[in-house]
Specification:
Mean pLDDT: 97
Protein name: Fumarate hydratase
GO molecular function: 4 iron, 4 sulfur cluster binding; lyase activity; metal ion binding
Family: Belongs to the class-I fumarase family.
Strand order of the largest sheet: 4-2-5-10
Number of domains: 2
Shape: globular
Radius of gyration: 19 Å
Pfam families: Fumerase
Largest sheet: 4 strands, mixed
Number of strands: 10
Organism: Carboxydothermus islandicus
Length: 280
């Protein structure tokens, strides 16, 4: 059994929320550069070049990549041989978010109640997902999620008879209906299976995959490529102003499901697909 003080988790999250908001990951930057070369629309090409330039300025000057610094979505994989000491885990997580967003001068975007709409003033509470895994380490992934792309996400309980064609149509329709709102080029996370809430979580986790990585399942790898091609053929283009590059990637995650069910969730992310990870 290994003891780990929750203060270490707090400090890690404080650092990660700032870094995630200031530094676009290498896989996204590389995908944007490829997209800028591939895009035929002159307007679209200029937009992609500005997006790349913006990311470099943000990193160099330690500024947020986007003014919407997002909901702090935190994924924890806690080894079953870890004993957390020194306080309450959730309090430590939120303190890390609080300090990071305040000291890092990041926009505070969370309201205490969804209808009364009073800002909490420190971007807490975080949305936290915890998995217990083998081992004695704690893996922390911070994934700030902007409101514009999140608002365009959808979930649908398809009938099993709808099959793969129904899934394709729902994913494509979701992107088409979203149009320019999620600030394309986007990353498309798709969760298939499980239950109503499991499909949504799968779609969220799909956004954490490295852009350009291959799905290990040949069937879903092929489906991802097909969906990406169809989405880019919609012609929405960078920032919705037309072009060949509407999405940088489609990532699919699946889970076993009930014989009567076919849940499908589509979680859209703008090109600022922020996530940073550390292992303690």
């Amino acid at each position: 059994m290994r003891n780990l003080d929750v203060n270490e988790i707090k400090n890690a999250i404080k650092t990660l929320v700032v870094k995630a908001n200031q530094e676009l990951s290498t896989d996204i930057l590389n995908a944007l550069k490829v997209a800028a070369n591939y895009e035929k629309s002159e307007v679209g090409k200029k937009i992609l070049q500005r997006v790349i330039e913006n990311a470099q300025i943000a990193k160099d000057e330690e500024l947020p990549i986007c003014q919407d610094t997002g909901t702090a979505v935190i994924f924890l994989e806690i080894g079953q041989d870890v004993h957390l000491v020194g306080g309450n885990l959730h309090e430590a997580i939120n303190q890390g978010v609080r300090e990071g967003y305040t000291e890092g001068y990041l926009r505070k975007s969370i309201v205490k109640d969804p209808l009364n709409r009073i800002n909490t003033g420190d971007n807490t509470p975080a949305v936290v997902h915890i998995d217990i895994v083998p081992g004695d380490r704690v893996k922390i992934t911070v994934a700030p999620k902007g409101g514009g792309s999140e608002n365009m996400s959808q979930l649908k309980m398809l009938k099993p008879a709808d099959g793969v064609e129904g899934v394709k149509q729902f994913v494509i329709d979701t992107v088409r209906q979203a149009g320019s709102n999620p600030c394309p080029p986007i990353i498309v996370g798709v969760g298939i299976g499980g239950t109503f809430e499991k499909a949504a979580l799968l779609a969220k986790k799909a956004l954490l995959r490295e852009v350009g990585s291959q799905n290990p399942d040949p069937f879903y790898n092929s489906l991802e490529k097909e969906l990406l091609e169809k989405i880019n053929n919609l012609g929405i283009g960078p920032q919705g102003l037309g072009g060949r590059v509407t999405a940088l990637a489609v990532h699919i995650e699946t889970y076993p499901t009930h014989i009567a069910s076919l849940p499908v969730a589509v979680n859209l992310n703008c090109h600022v697909a922020r996530h940073e990870t550390v292992i303690l």
